């Protein structure tokens, strides 16, 4: 009888789980269908009529690039300074954002925070910083400061501080408190306890997450170029604007971006593996 009751309870639990899963799937499908219908209606119902042209632009770019393939190396050299500017924006924003994230994460970690009562405030601040897209922050800063790489760097740094701060705070929670308590017992200040007792434990994970974020910020800085933030994204926008006749420039920029992202992805992946001890 006990075995039968256990089996009945298990089957009842399985049926309930399947029912909840079916309801969630139905809600998901309904939301997807309604969202698609709304988007299609706001697009004047042109989705189905335009879907057949989805490969038209890539084919035009490839065709023109094939005709002018001899010019591609020279064009890649031409846009190399813009690519370097994009990488500089990503590097500076990653560095500034990571430094801010370290401070925010330490201030928002239980057992390490300087002001424990302020932990929810710092956590909500990081939520806000990573919730606002970089492009929105960049547009506001461009309106205030004018176009250029500085608004893009600040925008990406703000988003990076929120995103890395969340990851760093989770890493901090796994740090041993014994070195911190030992330093506190001899009168060390909060900053000294963090630098000497916590940072050495979590530095490899910090660097690993920082390198991963650097890859993301390279792509983000290229995208922000479309709104006038400089870098290679700005050149790509101009090449798009001219249309046919300049698609060889589009192809050259795409090749530069692709090669750069692959290079830094492999490089940072290698060093991340070394930092966490997998190599």
What structural class results from the helix and strand content?
Answer: mainly alpha
Low-confidence stretches: none
What pattern of helices and strands is seen along the backbone?
HHHHHHHHHHHH
- β-strand percent reads under 5%
What radius of gyration results from the CA coordinates? 25 Å
Mean pLDDT across the residues is 83
Shape: extended
Would you report the number of β strands? 0
Terminal-residue CA separation:
55 Å
Helix content: over 70%
Number of helices: 12
Please outline the major beta sheet: none
Condensed summary:
By secondary structure, this protein is an all-alpha fold.
Tell me what the structure shows.
- It is a single chain.
- The protein is an all-alpha fold.
- The protein is 80% helix and 0% strand.
- Helix 7 (134-145) crosses helix 8, helix 8 (149-172) packs across helix 10 and helix 9 (178-185) packs across helix 10 (190-224).
- The chain has helices spanning 2-42, 47-50, 56-67, 72-78, 80-107, 119-131, 134-145, 149-172, 178-185, 190-224, 232-242, 247-275.
- It starts with a helix and ends with a helix.
- The mean pLDDT is 83.
- It has 12 helices and no strands.
Layout of secondary structure:
Blueprint: H1 2-42, H2 47-50, H3 56-67, H4 72-78, H5 80-107, H6 119-131, H7 134-145, H8 149-172, H9 178-185, H10 190-224, H11 232-242, H12 247-275
Helix pairs in contact: 3-12, 4-12, 5-8, 5-10, 6-8, 7-8, 8-10, 9-10, 10-12, 11-12
